[in-house]
Amino acid sequence: MRFAKWHGIGNDFVMIADPDDRISLDAAQVKTICDRRFGVGADGVIRVSPARPTDDADLFMDYVNSDGTLGEMCGNGIRCLALFAREEGLSDKSQLKVSTRAGVKVVTVLDDGRVRVDMGPPIFEPAKIPMAWDGTDALHAKLELESEVVEATVLSMGNPHAVLFVDDPAAAPITTIGPAIETLPVFPNGTNVEWARVDSSDHVTMTVWERGSGQTLACGTGACAVAVAAKLIGGSNENVIVSLPGGDVEVEWAGSLDDERPVFLTGPAEKSFTGEL
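Structure (tokenized):
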């Protein structure tokens, strides 16, 4: 099976073209492929197949996390898909409609080679995040851990996120608090966890623990969640640069709690190498 290794600012994926929709990978196979010592090594596997006619889309993004669990949406992965699809001859369009488990997303390849994604509007309603919570203010949700209670801004960008604002994201206890919050019973499907700092009105710094993948260099949906939270909580602008350990992306959101406008994510996508499994 041919594959290509792509990454979006360090968030890396094994990309597999499946134009005949005949490839099936189970969780154990995905884990082996993503293992950085015994496999190719990646944060996840993306199989690109034709979309169902009922989806009104060009392609389907079958995204699986490195632990073998299904992912609804991946902002860095879908940017890689746009360029991978053109290279593989799956589509020659500069603007694609891509069906995901979080709905159809519109992806545009820009003249400078970067890719812009319409990520859809953020979701704040706890039941739709999903979050088993009877509170009324998910922007200031109190999460009870074994040793402490932390405040997080909880929302969905097609998948769930808990954003914690801190003084130094790089010093956050990512590998301990991250999995603890990810697996809290209040999140029936688990959650991604971000630590963020608003540096200025147009710049935010963050680190991330990804549900199903662990600590990663970047998370596209996480960057969108942080930018939305920063605008609502930290007073940032509607256009911000979000800096992650792997690099920077641009996020635009002109909405509010009462205005369901979409979030736009723009950033690079690069091929690392190709090979055979």
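The chain has four helices and 17 strands. The mean pLDDT is 95.
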